[in-house]
Amino acid sequence: MQLKVFPTRAAMSAAAAAHVADRLRYMIRSRRRARIVPATAASQIEFQAALADQRDVDWNQVDVYQLDEYIGLPADHPARFEHLLRNNLLAPAGIRHAHLLSGHDADDVLRRASRAVTVGEIDLAILGIGENAHIAFNDPPADFTSEDPYLVVSLDAACRQQQVSEGWFKSIREVPRTAITMSIQQILRAREIVVIVPDARKAAAVAATLTEPVSPLVPATILRTHHDVLLFADEAAMSKTSEEIRRSFDT
Prior knowledge:
This protein has 251 residues and is an alpha/beta fold. 34% of the residues lie in helices and 18% in strands.
């Protein structure tokens, strides 16, 4: 894992967007298309806005696969990740090829998404890290072994409270208890992984990701086993990580 730290969230988002755009241009030149999985959360909005502004990317050659989605929210609910993905990346960038986790029947959505994502290799997964160190909706203790591309999972209290704190819901009672998520093993199949983590509220999760033993109890630690991971963070997110640990990662 490589680590890049920036003084502000804005600087981090801009640098991450420039890096991802550069990788997309390379993928399109070398493989004609790029297949990506972007995380969809409050922590990703500024990055996605900066990425969508990268007009020299041929977005017609980019296929997007949705990472996760709540089960049970009405189709028009503003907290649905499908809406966030459409509003913050797909529409601004003009991306037309997207495989979204849409539908009322979770089993059908699971089957369709699993078929679509396994047609070919994912070139790039763009992730965040949750306050409980989840990646996608793989809350602790995460399933590190399932080979299924997508899973139906239960959301823990810390994950659900994070959604309230971010303003998507008025109370934890409104937050769905289940979701569809890309599995850990499917995420790790991506050729490259970029992780984007701003804000002090993620500081403990970032420190645990970088220092704790690889464990389902700290799901993001599994990223250290992948051969090509680049973590972008701002200083606030790194505030609980020592200088010694920072120096131990390539920058």
